[in-house]
Design a protein that fits this description.
globular, mainly alpha, 5 helices, 101 residues
């Protein structure tokens, strides 16, 4: 089975220079390592709208490392203290951060 190469549909933020942003972008493998989760679980987080793509390099999604670390702590806190599901956490984060669902 032949599939077309995946293209990234994220507007790049390169107009803001990388040096000015001081943002470290990481791949999904590194994000999974920071979370202590598998790449498969990180893709589930992405599909539920929890993990947002910051930029792309070719067909590779890149994530803001600081956002990944913050997200890890927020998800843990909401799951432990409030018992929220991943879908509920995604909705709550969208409300908190004014993100588009």
């Amino acid at each position: 089975m032949v599939t077309a190469p995946r293209t990234c549909h994220v507007k790049t933020r390169r107009s803001l220079s990388m040096a000015a942003r001081k943002t470290k972008l990481i791949g999904i493998e590194d994000a999974a390592r920071l979370f202590g989760k598998s790449v498969h679980q990180m893709r589930e987080y992405k599909s539920k709208g929890l993990l947002k793509v910051a930029d792309c390099l070719g067909n590779k999604d890149l994530y803001d490392m600081a956002e990944v670390i913050l997200l890890k702590h927020l998800i843990h806190e909401m799951r432990v203290t409030e018992g929220l599901s991943l879908s509920q956490i995604s909705r709550r984060l969208d409300q908190m951060m004014g993100r588009a669902a």
